[in-house]
Amino acid sequence: MVLVFIDHDGKKPKKGGLEAITRARELAGALGVPVAGLVVGSGIGEVAEEAKKYVDTLYVVDAPEFADYTAEKWTAAAHTAAQKTGAKAVVAPASRTGRTWTARLAARMDAGLLEDVLELEPSAEAVVAKRYTFLNRVLEKQKAAYPVVISIKPNTAPLAEPAGEGQVEALEVALGELEQKVQVLEKIQEEKKRVSLTEAPVVVTGGRGMGSAEAFKLVEELADLLGGAVGATRAVVDAGWRPYAEQVGQTGKTVQPNLYIALGVSGAVQHQAGMNKSKVVVAVNKDPDAPIFKETDYGIVGDVHQVLPAMIEAVKKLKD
Amino acid sequence: MALDFSLTEEQIELQKLARRFAREQVAPVAKEYDEKEAVPWPLIEKLHEIGLLNISIPEENGGLGLGLVEEVIIGEELGWADMGFYTIPMASELGITPVLLAGNAEQKERFLRPLTEKPALAAFALSEPGNGSDAAALKTRAERVGDHYVLNGTKMWISNAAEADWTVVFATFDPELRHKGVVALVVERDREGVSFNKIHGKMGQRAAPTYEMVLEDVKVPVENRLGEEGEGFKIAMLTLDKTRIPVAAGSVGVARRALEEAAKYAKEREAFGRPIIDFQAIQFKLADMMIGLETARMYTYYAAWLADRNDPRHIYASAIAKAYASEIAFDAANEAIQIHGGYGYVNDFPVEKLLRDVKLNQIYEGTNEIQRVIVARHIKKHIP
Amino acid sequence: MKFVAIIRQVPDGEAKLKEEGGRIDLSGATMILDQMDEYAVEEIIQLKEKHGGEAVIVAFGPERTKEAIRTALAMGADRAVFVKHEGDADPITEARALAQVLKEEAPTVVFTGGQQADWDSYALGPAVAEALGWPSVAWTTQFELLDETKAKAKHDLDEGAQVVEVALPAVFTTQQGLNEPRYPTLPGIMKAKKKEIKEIPAEELGVRGAKVEILSQEIVQIERKQKILDGTKEPEKAAEELVKLLHEEAKVI
Fold first, then answer.
1. What is the pLDDT of residue A193?
2. Residue A2 in 3-state DSSP?
3. What DSSP string runs through A183-216?
4. Which residue segments constitute the domains of chain C, with CATH numbers given?
5. Which pLDDT score is estimated for A319?
6. Nearest CA in chain C to A188
7. Pick from B113, B69, B71, B65: which is nearest to B91 by CA?
8. What are the boundaries of each domain within chain B?
9. Given pLDDT bands bounded at 50, 70 and 90, which one contains residue C233?
10. Across residues C153-166, what is the average pLDDT?
């Protein structure tokens, strides 16, 4: 079997889960085996009802101990399911948590780990995958023999369509000493934005060159006009002008919008790692030497405080 | 087998540290300090924190006891980022060196240890409004009165003076004796009668604070005298024989920056359908920059190596290094502007500042003309 | 108490990457101690300064990894264990080898970067923990050692964060904001000369090949138009022109 971990929002499978299912089906096709799904949580009956439509068998780990995520518990659940199904391949979305527990699972199963992959070329003996390395600047082709644990890069696979009605099986996961070692004391929610940064078709990012937190009002205005989200560089977050949730870059979020506008951003490689796959990149900076201009389709060398209001006016005119 | 052009592991780590500090801390704020003519205290504090300030102070006085080779390594990196900033720690070493050369054990402990315990600077005051190259013609008067000297006069172009804990002041107790009448005195900043006027409107190196130092009946105890009466001039010259070498290192840094900026620009800028680096005229300019940079760097290291061994050849070698490096750096900065065309002329690009900054390297710490006098002196004496 | 940081040497982000024969060629590249691992080194030095004990560096890689080890020692770590290995090794393979070293060292807590800037992987920390049967906490933004047997930490999830209490020993991977890594100092560089770097060949730890084979590496640079307008004299005009281009040429608004 091919086992796919389907992440969810408490009600239904998340986009990442549906992307992972698509890849799991590719693998299953190459191996000629069925697809088993796994959902984990507490009080997830609704999720299971929806998720079963995508797989041949759905394993459900639904217990109070699984209300909060820990890498140890999630690994235990996935490992139990993998053993039950004799899965040669385990597929999961490459979310931050996904990339963490799949690493543990690969070590536990003595499997090859293909992390955050864009594409798969499965065959009967091995899987070849493509992924980015060197801060998203290099495309690497990797090969691993079965068993493999694979995490799927967000926004690279098509969303799976429902395909019938799979069997649902409750799965008992024995939790031992290791799983007790991490106790969740507190959960801190991220402020929900209207437009999710990673899903937005347009991202308008302000950097150090904006000069102050107040100046971001204009950044927000432009983002709103274009139906996009506001992004921030690490310098801006460190300065306390914007929340970490808006940070784009190696230690923040990776985005791939149709249009990425960088205002007062110098373009350090760690920032670029988070946006260099955007379809069209625009930059405004007063320093003609700024590294961002090398990675830009359209740009303006000038004072962002003069250019930005003019851009907003021009966009408003366009809308009318 | 002796000739070996490699750095030790520690020197390589030092170079990496200095380069990182220069790139991450100094370069980003260089333009701002230049525009404001402001003293970059936060950078001086950070330089002290990472142990790169006043490195020549001996271990027995709380320092690292490092030599000119290490100073040259640091100098190239800091000069690359901002020659004006580099002049600050460089001028501090200029003040420390006379104490190292002529101070007794008690003086070394008293004057040097406090410079290791916190971010602090020293300074060196030889030039006056009326004399620079003709150092022996100095007029600042030191009158011996019992157990102290009374100082009267004005010193000019003194880097760090108002920020330094103390300044080594060279004064005359008998103008008739010319260079044999000079005494070196350590003058603490807060002694009564000491005042400073900051010099404004400098062409470049504007982050480096430069002062006119006015001494009015300043009482300095005999315990602050370095060496004997009459030895002051010799102490000043022996100091400069060494301290001109870090100036050369700073020039090398500026030359390297000029080459890197010009090469980067030449690869991006297009004319007549191709990047201008494809054209021989530009290639030759860049090649000349590199020829100057490589030779200046190697020779500066050689001069430092000689000086660290107290090999007498360092006297002319330091003069050659100082003059040559500042001249190739000036040419490199000049050509870097030329390669940038109109953009080289505006301060959005970093190259015009390189020229403004490095011009001073041809003037201070002994003009390039005086450096040639020193070299000629060696020729006259030793080359038959 | 013993605090361990696992470090990796990676190419300097500023350096331009070179490709040779279908593989990235690092022979001329400036290599540095990975920035995410720097948070790990800083954390163990701070823990040692606060609680006493030893701050130990563990590294895996080719000979020149020693430069990064020396940087960590110059920052203030006490000694290092270096598993020398030439060639490719995936995070799981490396984790297996390091687990043996850590089993012997028996530290109180282990830190490593949340990700490293060459293989772009999050896996090393969790895989090391798994190989040792220890818990792991990824993307840690705050850490407090409660005593030798437990710690409290805040770490990032996919959205939002969690505060957890963890039984030690455990592996924590770092996230920006955990601390402010110090520069090495020149006195530190000189003291590092005398600090021990124990070298172990990877073969001795049973490392033979890797579970994941790298077939090829290709620098992918999206060719950008680089149409830059001058907005210094007439910013409004430039802005209008830009919006026009985005609407008519790029068709993104």
1. 75
2. strand
3. EEEEEEPPPPPSS-TTT-SEEEEE-GGG-SSTTH
4. 2-205 (3.40.50.620), 223-253 (no CATH)
5. 84
6. C161
7. B71
8. 9-117, 122-230, 233-382
9. confident
10. 95
Domain boundaries, chain A: 2-180, 202-319
pLDDT recorded at residue B29: 94
CATH topology of domain B9-117: Butyryl-Coa Dehydrogenase, subunit A; domain 1 (1.10.540)
Q: Cα separation of C102 and C99, whole Å?
A: 5
Query: Helical H runs in A181-303?
Result: 216-225, 234-238, 269-272
Task: Say what the ipTM of the complex is.
Answer: 0.94
pLDDT, mean of each 10-residue run, chain B (384 residues): 91 95 95 95 97 98 97 98 98 98 98 98 97 92 97 97 98 93 97 97 97 98 97 97 98 98 93 95 98 98 97 97 98 98 92 98 96 97 92
| Residue type at C36 in one-letter notation | M
Please answer yes or no on whether C135 and A303 come within 8 Å at the CB atom: no
| CB atoms closer than 10 angstroms to residue A267 | 22
Residue A196 pLDDT > 90: no
Looking at residue C16, its pLDDT comes to 84
- Residue C90's φ and ψ, nearest 5 degrees, are -80, 165
pTM of the predicted protein model: 0.90
* B373 to chain C, closest Cα gap in Å: 37
| Fold that domain A202-319 belongs to in CATH | Rossmann fold (3.40.50)
Can you tell me the distance from the alpha carbon of A33 to that of A199, in angstroms, rounded to the nearest whole number?
33
The predicted pLDDT at position B265 comes to 93
Which residues does B310 contact at the CB level (< 8 Å), separation at least 6?
none
Looking at 3.40.50.620, 2.40.110.10, 2.115.10.20, 3.30.499.10, the CATH number of the domain B122-230 comes to 2.40.110.10
Tell me how close the Cα of A308 comes to any Cα of chain B, in angstroms: 20
Q: Residue C253 and residue A226: Cβ atoms within 8 Å?
A: yes
User: Domain A2-180: which topology?
Assistant: Rossmann fold (3.40.50)
Q: Which residues of B are catalytic?
A: 365
Instruction: Kindly state which CATH superfamily the domain B233-382 is placed in.
Output: Butyryl-CoA Dehydrogenase, subunit A, domain 3 (1.20.140.10)
Interchain contact, B51 vs C71, CB within 8 Å: no
Domain A2-180 matches domain A202-319 at the CATH topology level: yes
Residues counted in chain C = 253
